[in-house]
Amino acid sequence: MDGHQTISWEAEPDLEPDVLLPSQFFARPGARASMLPEGQLMRAVLEDASATFQKNAVTKDLRGLRLFAEAAAWFASEDVSWLFSFVNIRYVLDIDADSLRCGLRRWRDRQRAADETRIVPRSAFRRVHGSRYAVGK
Fold first, then answer.
1. For the segment 97-113, what is each residue's pLDDT rounded down to a tens digit?
2. What range defines the domain where residue 80 resides?
3. In this structure, are residues 39 and 28 in contact, taking their beta carbons and an 8 Å threshold?
4. Sign of the CA dihedral with 45 first, then 85, 34, and 26 last
5. Do residues 68 and 52 make contact, with C-beta atoms less than 8 angstroms apart?
6. Which residue did the predictor score with more confidence, 84 or 23?
7. Between helices 37-55 and 97-117, what is the axis angle to 10°?
8. Is 137 within a domain?
9. Taking CA 14 as the corner, what is the angle to CA 9 and CA 30, rounded to the nearest 5 degrees?
10. In total, how many domains does the chain have?
11. pLDDT at 20
């Protein structure tokens, strides 16, 4: 015997790679998901989507309508394949998805109802500078 040991790797079934779910990763003792950098980034994505939704809820321009449609589709999606999908973010941040979606819909409906009844104030002043047509001399 020369003092060397032989290690058999086939005899160790416990040496398989560990696979972690997001809930397991963020459930570390003493760590709150929203306080970790990853959670802060997810919160920022959620805040940006909410701001985009609210800013463009009653817009009339095409770009705003497109942005609103994208934000609304993101909130409505049940996709979990993308790390920053709404479902994954709300799971990590422990947010009730149905309550948030319902609140956004109610807010949108109130804004649109107010927009329909809003009277656009007309200026009482005439345009003084410039004219619509140029008159030649």
1. 999 999 999 999 999 88
2. 20-116
3. no
4. negative
5. yes
6. 84
7. 20
8. no
9. 135
10. 1
11. 64
